[in-house]
Amino acid sequence: MLMKLKSLQISGFKSFADKTTINFEDGITGVVGPNGSGKSNIIEAVRWVMGEQSAKSLRGGKMPDVIFAGSQSRQPLNRAAVTITFDNSDHFLKTDFTEVSVTRKLFRNGDSQYLINQNDCRLKDVLDLFIDTGLGRDSFSVISQGRVEAIFNSKPEDRRVIIEEVAGVLSYKQDKQKAESELSKTNDYLDRVSDLIAELQSQLEPLEEQSSLAQDYVDQKKQFDKLEKTRLVQLIEGLQGQSQSITDKVTAAEKLVDQYQKQKKTLTITVDQLKQQRQVLESKKDNLQTDLLNTTKRYENLAGQQNVGSEKTKYQDQQLSELAETIKANSQKLTDYQAQKVELDQQVAANQQTVEKIKSALAGLSEKEIQKKQTEIQATIDQLQTTYIEKMQQVAQVHNEQVNLKKGYEQDSQQQLHVNADLCKLEDQLDELTAGFKDQEKRVETLKKDAQTAENTLKEALSDYQKLSEQQKQSQDSWLDALRVYQQAKTRLETLSNSDVELRSYYQGVQNVLKNKTQFPGLIGVVSELLEVPDKYTKAIETVLGGQLQQLVTQNDQDARQIIQYLTKQRAGRVTLLPLSRIHAKQVSAKVQHELENLEGVEGIAADLVQTSDKWGLVKQFLLGNVCVATDLKQASKISKQLSTRLKIVTLDGEIINPSGSMTGGVNRHQTAGLLTQKQARSNLAKQVSQMKTQLASREALVQDLKQRLAATETKGSELRQQFNATNDLFKDGQSKLTISKNQITELDRRIVAVKYESQQNGDLQSDFTTQSADLSQQEKQLNADLEKISTDTNSYKQRLTELHEKQDKSQQAIAHYRDQLTDAQVTLTQAKTRLNALEETIEKTQLLVQNSKKRQATIRSEKESTGSKNEAQQKELAESKKAIAELKMQLEDQKASFTKLDQSLTEKEQELQRVQELGSVSSDELQTIKIKQTRLSEQVDHALNDLSEKYQLSLELAKAQSIAVAPDELQRELKLAKKGLAEIGEVNVGVIEEFQRVSERYQFLTTQKDDLMTSQKQLLETINEIDTEAALRFKNTFDQISASFSKVFVKMFGGGKAKLELTDPEHLLTTGMEIKAQPPGKKFQRLSLLSGGERALTAITLLFSILEVNPVPFCILDEVEAAFDDANVARFADYLRNFRHQTQFVVITHRKGTMVECDVLYGVTMQESGVSKMASVSLEDVSRKETSTQ
């Protein structure tokens, strides 16, 4: 079973606003409905979904008209969609799917979409799906009443399409059209290639000569480049050697700077340590001076005490000596007194009785009491005398202390004078140093600011230098890049502007005329040179004019004939000439102009878009006056249809629609630039070169300016560095002096404090002296007062003792008076007793005196021993103090010496530190200088490397590999010779080598291309012949089959008569027309055009049925094709449908009852809602079965 139409789904297409699905069964499906209900929209939906592109054939003005436009109650829709589904079980359609659905969608904004089995595809895919299947938008599977009329109204030549459609030769025709198009292109290419080959042949000989000279230049240039590369390599290696030496110097300088930095750091630490040691020594020295001062004071105190002790010892020795003599004398006296006592005791014993008697007589007398009082008074006197001696000793001691104190005071006073003098001197020095320090501090602050300012200025200068250096490098690199680009562009421009090169693009004849244009005074020029075309329209104008751009313009036809005669005589080619006296301007009518103004996508008339001199305006109008320029091919097609192809239309992309309707477009794989493009390229390149030259001059001026500014900045930086170094040295020197002054002020402050302390100590000593002197004077005064009092008391007691003696004498006289009787007896006893008493008293006194002397002696000895011990202790302490003083003085001297030595070391270290700082600064400057040299060497190396890179695109390693071993002197000599050789050759266009090679290669290529094209031409001709043979054979076979079938079917359809198909030119099957001749019953045999309207229609239907017999199709849609038939013919038509319904599925849109009766399924189309079509279906077989069952 053949493939069949399964369903049609319509949504938003024309009057079918709602989604409507029509299912098609086997047999005949009828579609009926009143006029205007939308029946024909169904067949149009089928044609539209199968690829119809003509809105006019779908009864619309433009394609969006097929979208539902709305009604009184409904809004317009934005989309129309139709899906047709086929049962492809027998794979009638060349696809693997057993069911194939084709969908087409159109949106009101103009967007469209095609789908096959719900997959996006192209329109071409849809058309290819139905090609050579008998289906499709223009096939006999969809037949409208207009299509039937077209058959009998067509010319015989147009009717052949009917046979071609059935014969399936459309694909052959397409293949032939492609082959013929390819053949046409091949012929065009062959002609062009032949012209190009002829042109290239004329160029090869002069190019070869120029190429040889240029090659010689290139060879010598290569040798020169090799030598130059060797020179650059040697220069770089030499510079790198120097750079290595400089690097070693930098390393050494950095090491030296680092060494000085380390020395500076070490010396700074040493100086700080020495300063700390000096402070320690200074503190120790101050402590030693304090200890010495205290020890000296102690020593002097001990010395004074020692002197007092010595005097006291001497006085004690004197007292002891005197006491010893006193004791000795008293002891002798005592011995004598003892002997006398013994005698007196005997006398007393003998006279005791007498005495007793005398005592008895004298009992009433108080002699003993007087004696007792005398004894007491005498004891008091002795005690006073002892006290007096002690006080005298104390007075002597106080006197000695006063003397010693006075001496110490005088010494302290003298020392205080020296101290005060030293203090004044130190304070004057301090004031002087302080004033100098402040001045120095101000100067240092000023120098610091100056140094800071100089440093900032230097930094700014260095920053400016760095920035300028970078700018200069960038500008120089930019200038070199621009120079290279400029030279390349200039060389390219010179090459393009070269007359020989410029002429190569012209045909041989044009070249020969232009080369000898001086012989033709009437020659104006080539069309391409007379026209000025904006970039936007270059491609369009270049394409539409094509070879006309090489046409020559002359003043008149005489000038033109002169050129033609010259070319003919010289056999120098062919040209087309435009004599201004013969050509006429082409104009677009005002009506067309008006229409163009209202059309979308029109750029304008080409002649109006191109500029030229007023003198040559005729040429412009002649060539381009009837050419319209459109934006693109789509718009061009619309414009062509609107204007009925009265103008040649060219798009901006170079596609052309000719007035005949033919179209030209596409792009060659190896498409060369046209004359206008080349001219535009030269013009643009000339402008670029001019702009580049201006920019290059500006950049070169900028580079020179930056170089000058860089040199000035470098000089300024050097001056600023010297200024900074000088200012910094002054600042450092001032700082050093300031530090020394500060240390001196600190030292003076310390010394002033020490002197003030010493002065204060002296003041304290003087204050103590005054206090002590006053105390000693008070003590001496008190002691003198005590001595005076003791003396007074002693005299008083002596007076009383005298008075007692007188009283005793008076008592004795009284006793004598009262003892007159006993005078004689008692005289002896009294005398004895008196002597004895006196002796005893004397003994007692002597004993007492001896005892007292011994006691005093013991006391003095004890005191002496104490004084001696004290003196010894003091002497020892004095010796120790003296030793301590000596040691302290030695230590102090040692400390002073150490301090002096340390101070000297500190000064030396500070001087050494300053020297190291200066050396470090010098080394840093030297390092900076070396680094600058290193930078310059690096720049020279970079410059040489840049030369290698920019001139030769080589790295140093590659350049070394390409360099030659040659001595520098020999290298310079060879370079000089190479330069001389190049100078002798002079300037050559090295591009001619490439041009010669290019032309040779192009000549070989074109020769090969010509051979290939000739081969292709031959193959295409063979292909076309094969296609023609196959198409003719198919056409003839199909025609014979259809003709035989037509004769049979005609008899059936007309109930008799005869008919046949005839070829108008049987000898030429590919172009012959087809005539239809028929003889209905009762009529004569005649052409179709001579039959009546009904007969013509039935005959045409008969032909269609004949075609279906020969080439059955899966389905056939007939749109009111039987409308003009009478009932008898309708019956025959319906009968035929019934007979063929098993092999072809019919869809019939009809009004005729006879047709409706034969339908298996009827669909009714109604418009219950205004403007909206609806479908209703009924199966007539089911109805028939129901009726039969009812009956």
TrEMBL record:
Keywords tagged on the record: ATP-binding, Coiled coil, Cytoplasm, DNA-binding, Nucleotide-binding
**Biased composition, class Basic and acidic residues, residue ranges:** 861-878
Per its UniProt record, what Gene3D superfamilies does this chain match?
A: 1.10.287.1490, 1.20.1060.20, 3.30.70.1620, P-loop containing nucleotide triphosphate hydrolases
Stretch list, region Disordered: 854-878
Cellular localisation? Cytoplasm
Pfam families according to UniProt: SMC_hinge, SMC_N
Domain SMC hinge residue range list = 521-640
* InterPro entries, alphabetized: P-loop_NTPase, RecF/RecN/SMC_N, SMC, SMC_hinge, SMC_hinge_sf, SMC_prok
* Coiled coil spans: 257-347, 430-478, 689-723
Q: Which CDD domains match?
A: ABC_SMC_barmotin
BP-aspect Gene Ontology terms:
chromosome condensation; chromosome segregation; DNA replication; sister chromatid cohesion
Keyword check for DNA-binding: yes
Gene Ontology cellular-component terms for this entry are: chromosome; cytoplasm
Keyword DNA-binding listed? The answer is yes
User: Which Gene Ontology molecular function entries are recorded, alphabetically?
Assistant: ATP binding; ATP hydrolysis activity; DNA binding
Q: What does this protein do?
A: Required for chromosome condensation and partitioning.
Which family does the record assign?
Answer: Belongs to the SMC family.
The UniProt comment on domains reads: Contains large globular domains required for ATP hydrolysis at each terminus and a third globular domain forming a flexible hinge near the middle of the molecule. These domains are separated by coiled-coil structures.
* Subunit structure, interactors included: Homodimer.
Q: What is this protein called?
A: Chromosome partition protein Smc
Instruction: Print the organism lineage.
Output: Bacteria, Bacillati, Bacillota, Bacilli, Lactobacillales
Q: Which gene encodes it?
A: smc
